Amino acid sequence: MADDNAANKWRPATNLVRGGTNRSNFAETSEGIFMTSGYIYDTAEQAQRAFQGEEERFIYSRFSNPTVGMFESRMALLEGAATGRATSTGMAAVNAAIASSVRSGDRLVASKALFGSCDYICRDLMPRYGVQSTMVDGTNLAEWEAALSEPTAVVFMETPSNPQMDIIDIKAVSELAHKVGARVIIDNVFATPILQKPLELGADVVVYSATKHIDG
C-alpha cells in the first residue's frame, strides 16, 4: 500500500498514477483486477474477528475488494478526503450520500440545475420518504439565504452543472449551510478533483459518476 504521508506530498499527476496502489506478492506493474467475492481465513476465529470489525482486511466484495479499494484510496488522495467509498453507479453514490444524511421530517435544499437523475432523487425520490425538498437557483445567493433561513439537513449542488454549466459559489453556500447545521454534498463530476476541490471550499461530501471525466 502506498504510504499515505508520502502520497500527500506527491503532485496530482503522481497521485493519479500511484496513489492508493496496493501491489500483490506477484509484484505486477499494472494494478490487478480481483474478481473474487470472498476471501480465505486461516481460522474460524480470524474470520469472526474480521466480520466483527476487530481485524482490518477485505471480507466481502460487496463492501470492497483490492481493486475497488485502490480506486477509493486514489480518489480520496486526489480529493484531499479522509476516505472514499465506491458504488456500482454514480447515482447510487448520490442517493447513498443524501439518504444517509436525512430521515423522515428532514429538509433538503438543492440547486435546480442538476443532472436529470440527480434532480429525480432530490425532487421526487426523497419526498417519498418524508423529506421536504426545496429547489433554488444555485447561482443566486439570495435564494440560498432564503432557503437556508430554517433548519436544513442537507444541501446538494452540482457545479459546474450538467449540462447548463452553472457555477455556484461553494464557499458562500457552505458557510450558509453550516450555520443551520446542514451537510453540504457536492457533485463534482465535471470539474474533477484536478480542477476543483470542494472540500477545501467547505463541502462535507463529494460525489462523482466515474463514467464522466474521471475515466477520461
User: What's the rounded overall pLDDT mean?
Assistant: 91
CATH C-level class of the largest domain: Alpha Beta
- Which architecture of the largest domain would the CATH scheme give at its second level? 3-Layer(aba) Sandwich
Oligomer: single chain
Radius of gyration: 19 Å
**Helix share bin:** 25-40%
The beta-strand count equals 5
N-to-C order of helices and strands: HHHHHEHEHEHEHE
Find the CATH superfamily of the largest domain: Type I PLP-dependent aspartate aminotransferase-like (Major domain)
Number of helices: 9
Structural category: alpha/beta
Shape: globular
What is the fold named in CATH at topology level of the largest domain?
A: Aspartate Aminotransferase, domain 2
Query: In angstroms, what separates the terminal alpha carbons?
Result: 25 Å
> How many domains?
2
Please list the strands of the largest sheet in the order they lie side by side: 2-1-3-4-5
Q: Uncertain segments of ≥5 residues (pLDDT<50)? A: 1-6
